[in-house]
Design the sequence.
């Protein structure tokens, strides 16, 4: 009977084949893994805590009531939905296994359009912790995707962390705050004449850097709205290794079949993901993008476009820029942390159909590793 336990664990893992938000500060309940996009422990759909319950012996992070705390989490796949853009939020409840109605939202912000599902985006959000102490309470992060292609026990992804709020010597003296600050996403519909969409058929090169983790990648994007296809080629951190953080990848996105292939050139392996709906490469509220127009014809922030002017939009910490003199070619997406994607050499041109045909290794892949049951019903 020595094998019984490992087999049981494998069976449980096999059930959660999909993906999407993971929390490590404070550490989430149960298993944790962000080593690949679409990591299994980031897919927890059943509310309020993804069907992972707590017990009094569960690991618990001790935090100071009323203090500021940086919540750190990763959107482990992007499910931006133009039909009704989603949001991410941080909420809190007292109790070992609180009910949905016990949670109150401490912070919330709009989803952003990563223009590619297979992305891993870290967030670090400073919140004010509730001022009441508690021995058993829960800090939760959700990704409310709204995406009908992700509808499997709803479209919301949950991660709960078991915490304890202790009193510090300083806040013991302070009067208790009467109310927690609640931030709701600001829903604006400031359509602006500068709102625009990239050409229907174009190619672009890009550089992506994340200074905090010394990440750098460069690649090429092929985008064709008419045939509903995208292709991305990207080399990460020099491309000499064989992990997602150091290799060269091909991504083929066929929005007709709803399939995205993710091919690792250095290992020769190909993963198949279920795709969400086609997502135009557009900027501004006029096109259902969550970024609001900020300014026209200002100096581009891109180191590759210093002499050029850009139009700007902003969604929370994300600043989006397009070249102002051209047909809405993206120039950059950047964040205050220094992370940025700079786009260069945008060119509107027909793309040879062969660009969008996956290689033979991918064509043989039939097992959809990362798609919701809802997606499987529609596409498999
Ligand atoms: C968690 O607790 C709820 C409520 O008691 C129960 O319905 C659910 O089955 C439990 N889930 C697991 C995985 O134990
Ligand atoms: C834009 O959003 C509205 C609802 O706000 C929706 O009815 C419409 O279908 C969306 N358009 C696109 C292109 O998704
Ligand atoms: C995200 O944060 C984790 C944990 O700190 C880190 O290991 C990882 O490299 C970060 N990834 C990205 C893409 O920033
Ligand atoms: C995209 O998928 C459709 C539907 O399965 C298929 O007919 C078409 O050949 C695919 N396109 C490419 C470029 O692979
Ligand atoms: C990845 O590289 C390591 C060390 O170079 C090697 O041991 C391993 O077999 C490689 N894995 C694959 C899947 O190629």
Sequence:
């Amino acid at each position: 009977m020595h094998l019984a336990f490992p087999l049981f664990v494998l069976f449980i893992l096999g059930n959660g084949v999909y993906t999407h938000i993971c929390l490590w500060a404070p550490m989430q309940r149960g298993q944790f893994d962000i080593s690949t996009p679409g990591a299994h422990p980031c897919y927890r759909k059943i509310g309020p805590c993804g069907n992972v319950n707590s017990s009094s012996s569960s690991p618990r992070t001790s935090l100071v009531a009323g203090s500021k705390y940086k919540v750190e989490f990763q959107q482990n796949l992007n499910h931006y939905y133009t039909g009704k853009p989603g949001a991410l939020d941080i909420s809190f409840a007292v109790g070992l296994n609180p009910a949905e109605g016990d949670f109150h939202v401490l912070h919330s912000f709009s989803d952003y359009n990563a223009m590619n599902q297979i992305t891993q985006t870290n967030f670090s959000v400073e919140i004010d912790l509730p001022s009441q102490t508690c021995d058993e309470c829960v800090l939760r992060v959700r990704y409310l995707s709204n995406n009908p292609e992700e509808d499997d026990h709803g479209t919301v992804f949950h991660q709960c962390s078991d915490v304890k709020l202790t009193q510090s010597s300083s806040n013991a003296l302070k009067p208790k705050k009467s109310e927690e600050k609640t931030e709701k996403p600001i829903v604006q519909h400031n359509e602006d004449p500068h709102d625009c969409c990239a050409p229907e058929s174009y190619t672009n090169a890009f550089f992506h850097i994340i200074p905090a983790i010394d990440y750098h990648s460069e690649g090429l994007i092929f985008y064709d709205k008419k045939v509903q296809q995208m292709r991305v080629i990207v080399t990460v951190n020099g491309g000499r290794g064989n992990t997602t953080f150091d290799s060269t990848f091909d991504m083929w996105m066929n929005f007709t079949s709803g399939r995205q292939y993710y091919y690792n050139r250095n290992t020769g392996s190909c993963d198949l993901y279920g795709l969400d709906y086609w997502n135009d490469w557009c900027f501004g509220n006029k096109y259902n993008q969550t970024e609001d127009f900020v300014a026209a014809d200002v100096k581009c922030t891109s180191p590759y476009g210093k002499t050029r002017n850009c139009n700007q939009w902003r969604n929370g910490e994300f600043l989006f820029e397009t070249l102002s003199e051209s047909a809405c070619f993206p120039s950059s997406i950047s964040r205050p942390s220094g992370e940025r994607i700079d786009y260069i050499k945008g060119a509107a041109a027909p793309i040879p159909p062969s660009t969008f045909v996956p290689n033979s290794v991918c064509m043989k892949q039939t097992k959809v590793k990362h798609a919701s049951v809802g997606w499987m019903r529609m596409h498999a």
